[in-house]
Amino acid sequence: MFENKSYWIVGASEGLGEAIAKDLHRAGARLILSARNADRLAAVAQASGGAQIVPMDVTDTDAVAQAMTQIGDLDGVIYCVGQYDPIPATDWQSKAVEAMCEANFMGAVRVLGHVVPRFVAKGAGHVVLIGSLAGHRGLPGSIGYGASKAALMHLGESLQADLRDSPLLVQVVNPGFIKTRLTAKNGFRMPMIQTPEEAASNVMNAMRSNRLEVNFPAPFSWLFTIGKRLPKSLFWRLLGKPEHTPTAPGTKGQGSGTLDPNT
């Protein structure tokens, strides 16, 4: 399925993005890797068969446009960028909240604004958006992060609605907790936390399945997918009361898409 196909991974410098890059390389894909950290990208590229690297800050409109001039024909794009800070409404931090929205959602808007017209024009393309279980319902301590991931997931659904009768495939993949340097700072139990490699395997399976939406890991993800239909008070009780400010699931780290910006 991936052999000789060209995939652009935006957010590939570490964590989930890095693990996906290695898996796609092993599957025979040609890779273009982007993130802000050029040194980290170079290391990932070397471990991924000498992939092309295009350093880019998704929060910079001009930088995204410039990056597109370096990218040739594409078969797919994986938006695996994210920025995360655990911020409750009682401690609103405007700059941090805005930064999460810029990286997690507006960055995707900037990238897709170039990629989707290309795919539409050639009548083929694969768009994969890495959302989060946190995007399904409002969570405590998730101002900025949860909302930006929910917006990304909604964007994916809108793309699916518009492109459902075309050869283009749009998928939204929503992971739970992923073990990275950033989730390491959490002071509470993270149910069913996965390694980046385990999460990447789930993403690859999702991409092969052609399913429009995939949530993992089960059964933890069921709390969020079924929880959308529960009364909010019951849903929050099921989550339990954390000892510390809660961190949203789906945090992956720079390069993976949910914790550190423009991974």
UniProtKB/TrEMBL annotation:
Keyword line: Oxidoreductase
Residue ranges occupied by any Ketoreductase domain in the UniProt entry: 5-181
The keyword Plastid is assigned to this record: no
Class of the enzyme per the UniProt entry, highest EC level: oxidoreductase
One term of GO molecular function: oxidoreductase activity
Spans annotated as Disordered: 243-263
InterPro entries documented for this protein: KR_dom, NAD(P)-bd_dom_sf, Sc_DH/Rdtase_CS, SDR_fam
GO CC annotation: membrane
Pfam families (UniProt xref): adh_short
EC number assigned by the record: 1.-.-.-
Family indicated by similarity: Belongs to the short-chain dehydrogenases/reductases (SDR) family.
Record protein name field: Putative oxidoreductase
Species this protein is from: Falsiruegeria litorea R37
